[in-house]
Structure formats: C-alpha cells, structure tokens
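User: Teach me something about this protein's shape.
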Amino acid sequence: MSTPPSSAQMVERIQKNPAYQRLREKRNTFGWSLTIVMLVVYYGYIALIAFNKSFLAQPIGSGVTSVGMPIGLGVILFTVIITGIYVYRANTEFDAIIDEIMKDAAK
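Assistant: First, the predicted structure itself:
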C-alpha cells in the first residue's frame, strides 16, 4: 500500500501537469478577454458621458427619461451577463479539468 503524497508533492505534481498549464493559459486568456470587453463597455459609456452629453440627455418618448438611462442600465446588465458567462464556464469546463488534474496528482 502506498502512502498519499504530501502537500508539497501534490503542489509539485499539479504544477508539472501539462493539463494544469493548459488550464492556466485558457483561464487567463478567457478572464483577460472578458476584462478587456468590460473595460471597453464601461469606459466607452464614461467617454460618451464626457464627450457627448447632448446625446445621452435626449429625452425618450414624452420626456420621462433620457437616452442615458437605458444605456447605463445596459452597462450594468452587461456586467451581470459576462459574470454569469464566466461562472458558467468555470463551473463546467474549468472545474472538470481541475478534477482530472487533482486525480492525476493524487496517484
């Protein structure tokens, strides 16, 4: 009967695993892509506020609200949606890969 690996041995095995390296690259690329998209949307909205206030101030319909309100709400909803996308992918694809890596490291 073999003894289970120590914590240090587990960490070393995980770090040397090619699947772990691919996971890190895939997760980092995906995370940075979503970050860049979010920054473009958020700072695009801020730039619109700074440089085209008249567009955002246009009333919609009978003048109850302005164009800026639904666009701002869209920025908030976009944030929630991309967070959901990341969580979904992390809980399906990434967690499955992590489980395989942990099983390999425990051998």
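Now, about its shape. The radius of gyration is 23 Å. The longest strand covers residues 59-60. If you'd like, I can walk through any region in more detail.
User: That's plenty for now, thanks!
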